[in-house]
Amino acid sequence: MTTTTDDTQHDSHADDHHEHHIPYGITRWLYTTNHKDIGTLYLWFAFIMFLIGGAMAMVIRAELFQPGLQIVEPHFFNQMTTVHGLIMVFGAVMPAFTGLANWLIPMMIGAPDMALPRMNNWSFWILPFAFLILLSSLFLEGGGPAFGWTFYAPLSTTYSADSTALFVFAVHIMGASSIMGAINVIVTIFNMRAPGMTWMKMPLFVWTWLITAFLLIAVMPVLAGAVTMVLTDKFFGTSFFDAAGGGDPVMFQHIFWFFGHPEVYIMILPAFGIISAIIPTFARKRLFGYASMVYATASIALLSFIVWAHHMFTTGMPVAAELFFMFATMLISVPTGVKIFNWVATMWRGSMTFEVPMLFAIAFIVLFTIGGLSGLMLAIVPVDFQYHDTYFVVAHFHYVLVTGAIFSIMAAVYYWLPKWTGKMFHIGLAKWHFWCSLISVNVLFFPMHFVGLAGMPRRIPDYALQFADFNKWISIGGFAFGLSQLIFLVLLIKACKKQGEPVSAQVWEGAEGLEWEIPSPAPYHTFETPPVVK
Amino acid sequence: MSANPNQTKNNKLVLKLAAIVIGMFGFGFALVPLYDVLCDALGINGKPSDTASVYEAVEIDESRLITVDFITRTNTGMPWEFRSETRQVKVHPGQLNQVNFYVKNPAKTAIVGQAVPSISPGPAALYMNKTECFCFEQQTLKAGEELLMPMQFYVDPQLPEDITYFTLQYTLYNVTSNVTASADVVAMN
Q1: I need a surface site. Which of A28, A336, A366, B51 has the fewest CB within 10 A?
Q2: CA angle centred on A323, ends A308 and B125, rounded to 5°
Q3: Is A96 in contact with A12 (CB distance < 8 Å)?
Q4: Which residues of chain A lie closer than 8 angstroms to B20, CB-CB?
Q5: A120, A219, A255, best to mutate vs chain B, most B CBs in 10 Å
Q6: Cα–Cα distance for residue pair A340/A292, rounded to 1 Å
Q7: Is the pLDDT of residue A150 over 70?
Q8: Residue B152's closest CA among B64, B78, B65, B58?
């Protein structure tokens, strides 16, 4: 009897036969081509990198707790600022977004998996090696990279340690990983949408990631070129950036920032998609201005290619060029403003509730706007001459990257985690995580505006006495923010152990979209037959 | 998987995207000559031409007098003494002038030097024509050797009216390590 039933079931589910053979053990993760597994790998990898990069930030803040040099050597301090930046940008924020893309894009567009699953496996598994190489260079004679994450020549050529070769190699691998990930996203979105999932029906997370993926394939190769030039200048006698041989160190900055500025949008556009998913759910209203969101994202992406020199106002550019880059930069605040306006308009007269993802999303809107505003101040040429290379800049980009990109990633994790595990996360811990992070992150980064305006330079292990009080508070905020993330770690471990209340398929009352129509936890294989999109 | 109807569609798109990636890698390198061409064309980098110009049939504009300053400096790791014999000249546009620069190698070994010019304000660089300059080639000085290096130039009469004063700075770099393979340096040491 039992056998018969099993057979019938097997026949009727011939297509789903994978379901019964979820691989297990280490090889499941090594050989996996499943978008959900790879998404999980990316997200855990990003979180580990976030903790490592965060530990480096703790070293930086411990040294800056008091004026004078007490804990680390200046050369080691420089390695910490450099590797902290590299890890957070390439190891934490970018892989976290790629992980979210892997988990969510196929479920959101009704595809069974990513278009290129084997390449997907590769693009993840080369990443740990890149960061192993980068981190191990810290233990070599002469130390690791100490020239800032921007690796300006001649710091990275004439004055760098021999480990620069490892840095270059690591960046090449990270770049290859990002490019493969981006190609995968584009091909998936172009070719694997369920019937009826037209372009303008795609969730904004899919749209923003599509545009991000195009930015990635456009600028990551330029970064690869820049590090290659640094490599050959340092080791093979070329003179791309060496004035003595006819090169030009300022040209390095042009090439780097031609990559670098689109790169900062790579780190924020997916965040816009996440916030555009969360706000409507908890305001219980449709997103205000869907089409304008799509066009605004595309305009931001296009404008990102013509503003790079605003990072270089003090290099002695002609006034005409400075004006051009100033106005182009300010122009970006228009589409960005459209987005902020749309989110606020979505919340306007909505039936709002404040679940944890919503708390992070609202914090994102407020704090990202503060970061955007200080960015606008930095865009003003004469003002930038005062602010350049001070803590004001540090305050600016940490508001957009920590309370912007990283808060959006946390919002996303809290929003979709119940869908992934099938259980509600520990809400009490999550609220502690949110409030501790929110308060400490502002104690950490807000006073940086003041010390920056007062002239405290960035990337220096010591400072003048008048900055001592502010720096003490900044460090206290830093330690508190660091500790707050351990709450998140505990919460995630509990979630992965499948502790918590079971959730429904929809999870959140107002949630809409294909990913909320499949059961929670999301089965190993979904949408093997395409869903019908209304 | 082989039955995937998207296979050919996917492969086509992947090839196109890979072409963009390769193209952008090339573009990164194309930025190098592009940067120089743009700076030359717009005169925005203070980089004068690194080839000799010919002085013939140039009309001298006696109505204007341009002040040209000379600054010399040596880069880190370059022990040479380096100065110009004249700190400042006043010239008519179109008039040919000569300024001598003195160098001495006080080190105990032969050193190869390369001077790199830079003009401020940048737009003047387009109008600074040098018929002869030590900066066009590298100099090799034996231990203790000294040398007087001539530089001949004229200011193009096309120089915009609003520029009446500019500065030419030479930075001298020690390029010995880049050319140690060359036989004469090895021989001198």
Answers
A1: B51
A2: 90
A3: no
A4: 217-218
A5: A255
A6: 12
A7: yes
A8: B58
Q: In the predicted model, is pLDDT for residue A10 greater than 70?
A: no
Q: What is the mean pLDDT of residues B6-22?
A: 93
Facing residue for A115 by CB, picked from B6, B42, B47: B6
Query: Quick one: closest CA in A to B27, which residue?
Result: A222
Tokens 């090449």 belong to residue? A172
Instruction: List active site positions of A.
Output: 84, 113, 149, 177-178, 261, 263, 265, 276, 310-311, 336, 339, 458
Does the pLDDT at position A180 exceed 80?
yes
Secondary element (H or E) of residue B175: none
Q: CA A31, CA A232: separation in Å to the nearest integer?
A: 36
Per-residue pLDDT tens digits for A394-434: 999 999 999 999 999 999 999 999 999 999 999 999 999 99
Largest CA distance in chain A: 87
Q: Which residue has the tokens 């404040």?
A: A354
- Position A20 confidence tier, pLDDT thresholds 50, 70, 90: low
User: Which pLDDT belongs to residue A386?
Assistant: 95
Question: In the predicted model, what is the mean pLDDT of residues A261-275?
Answer: 97
CA-to-CA distance for A199 and A145, rounded, in angstroms?
43
Burial of A518 (0-12, 13-18, 19+ CB in 10 A): middle
Return the amino acid letter for A532: V
